[in-house]
Design a protein that fits this description.
The protein has about 575 residues and is an alpha/beta fold. The chain has 19 helices and 17 strands.
């Protein structure tokens, strides 16, 4: 109660602060967790489940959850605890259910095993004397704002005592706004980690929850990596989610960082990493966060351009996984139109068209791949065309037509400003237009002549003479790019390495080999690794070219050349 002599202004301020706090609490809602850990089974007792429950309770309390903890619970105790849990939930709340102990699968339905369950019971008894996960999902539907269900319940398979399937089944009837995590993949069995205080899964989870600024998906990724590494890949946690918003156990420490432009850049970079891993939902979420920050300039423009592509990739993959190949092909086609060099999307579009018997559309995408693809992409497209030609003659005609030249980059990305040169494109340009050191030396000498020492200064050296000067040897071998090839066109990096080999033989004794103005070997024979393309092998004696040979370097191929003195 406020004191009577309290200043009126302070009274009003305290009242407004209390009202604001209540409004914030109502908007965010409560966070309530039911935590159960069962060790004391009459058969197949566990060592760490109770410790796991205690560790989770501590981490969740630190995250602001109101917790209900039950240890070694019977069937009745588990049901009563669930009733208490449900009674505390409102429409704006977050509900979290964590269970550590034995779990069994009965006719593709998951059950959690209370400590008073007899492991020798029949299958029918198991369905009535264990705690039904499906029933839990039904009870949580439409009650809280979001539900988080975490089951560390596949320990050493107690189900083998009653001849049931190993591990847990995939959840069948989870409601909206629900996140579900298992300590290992469906159908698999997790270790109890007898040499530790906690299971591998809960140890990683309870620790990662305490780290600020991590979303639920971030936590899942880190826990999965940590458990997989600790068990050498024998146990891989699994999760699924239909949450529409990000959930944090601990918000980022510095709220002002949300307006820091470097944060927007980091989130855009994280979106790119997620895209590379084909984690479309997370990539979309990061791009949306960038757009919400309104960073302006090229970063905001890049985010706006990237978002529809990511959404098309997400929707295409979702439809493909659901065997809706007509919808999938439309989305992959859209993604390819948004990013003409997203050849993985183009190939998936081809597969979707083929699976929906739309051969002309599949051929259309294969043509696009042959125009824009790297060598490895073209080879893959050609192999598909060859198989398709057996049932669709137009595919054979496309093969006979040869490989079309790619369009200019400006035609593909009209109106796009390329502020940062593409490294691979630059390398290919240098291969097609090699640096002529002799010409540069001559031009520099002409532009900036050295001080005259005498009236009879020698003329600048020719290219061959310069090579001789570089090596100071009367006989040398020079490797020079001679012509542009398909692999030197501007395109994306292919799946295969973009280099091959030249094996120089003959010319016993010292014979320096020069490439790009540098001595790369002191004698022949030697094996050179070179970018793909066409080259001239020049034999130079006393500054004069006395012989040339042409060679084509293909991806991962080896070409042999015999050098003659």
């Amino acid at each position: 109660m406020l004191q009577k002599n309290m200043p009126r202004e302070l009274t009003i301020a305290l009242w407004m602060l209390a009202a604001a706090g209540a409004a914030a609490q109502q908007e965010d809602g409560k966070k309530v967790a039911l935590i159960i850990g069962n060790n004391s089974y009459s058969a197949s007792p566990l060592q760490n489940a109770v410790n796991d429950a205690r560790a989770m309770e501590k981490s969740l309390k630190d995250a602001g959850f109101k917790t209900i903890l039950r240890e070694n619970a019977t069937q009745v105790a588990m049901e009563l605890a669930t009733a208490e849990f449900l009674q505390q939930l409102g429409p704006d709340d977050t509900a979290l259910f964590f269970y550590a102990g034995h779990g069994i699968q009965v006719e593709n339905e998951n059950f959690l095993v209370p400590v008073d369950f007899e492991m020798q019971s029949s299958v029918i008894e198991a369905k009535f004397r264990c705690f039904s996960v499906a029933k839990l999902f039904d009870l949580l539907k439409n009650r809280p704002k979001r539900s988080i269900v975490i089951l560390d319940a596949c320990r050493n398979n107690a189900a083998k005592s009653i001849a049931l399937e190993s591990g847990l089944a995939q959840p069948q009837n989870a409601g909206k706004e629900t996140y579900i995590a298992y300590s290992t993949s469906p159908g698999q069995v997790a270790a109890d980690n007898p040499n530790g205080r906690n299971s591998w899964f809960t140890e990683a989870l309870a620790d990662t929850i305490t780290q600020p600024g991590l979303s639920l998906d971030d936590i899942s990724t880190r826990v999965r990596a940590r458990v997989s590494a600790a068990t050498e890949g024998k146990q891989i946690p699994w999760s699924t989610s239909n949450l529409s918003t990000r959930f944090y156990f601990h918000r980022p420490l510095n709220a002002d960082a949300e307006n820091d432009p470097t944060v927007a850049e980091k989130r855009m970079e994280e979106a790119r990493r997620r895209e590379q891993r084909e984690d479309w939902a997370e990539a979309i979420d990061h791009v949306n966060q960038v757009l919400q920050m309104r960073p302006g300039a090229s970063l905001e423009a890049a985010a706006k351009a990237k978002l529809p592509y990511l959404m098309a990739r997400r929707d295409g993959q979702t439809a493909y996984d659901a065997s809706d190949f007509t919808a999938a092909s439309a989305q992959f086609e859209k993604a390819t139109a948004l990013d003409p060099f997203a050849l993985d999307a183009a190939f998936r579009g081809v597969n979707s068209y083929l699976l929906s018997d739309k051969l002309p559309e599949a051929l259309h995408l294969l043509k696009a791949i042959r125009v824009r693809g790297a060598t490895s992409d073209i080879e893959k497209a050609n192999a598909m065309l060859k198989e398709l030609a057996a049932v669709y003659p137009d595919a054979g005609e496309e093969l006979k037509a040869g490989i079309p030249q790619p369009p200019k980059i400006e035609d593909v990305f009209s109106g796009v400003h390329f502020g940062v040169p593409d490294r691979e494109a630059g390398n290919r340009y240098l291969q097609a237009n090699p640096v002529e050191l002799g010409r540069w030396v001559k031009e520099l000498t002409d532009a900036f002549p050295p001080p005259a020492v005498s009236t009879s200064a020698p003329p600048p050296p020719t290219g061959a003479e310069q090579v001789a000067q570089l090596t100071n040897n009367p006989f040398q071998v020079e490797v020079v790019p001679s012509a542009e090839t398909r692999d030197i066109q501007i395109r994306r990096i292919g799946e295969q390495p973009e280099y091959g080999f030249v094996q120089l033989e003959g010319a016993p004794g010292e014979a320096p080999v020069v490439f790009n103005g540098k001595t790369v070997a002191r004698q022949v024979p030697v094996r050179l690794q070179l970018p793909v393309g066409k080259y001239e092998i020049r034999e130079i004696k006393e500054g004069q070219v006395v012989g040339t040979q042409s060679v084509v370097v293909t991806t991962q191929g080896t070409s042999a050349v015999t050098v003659k003195r």
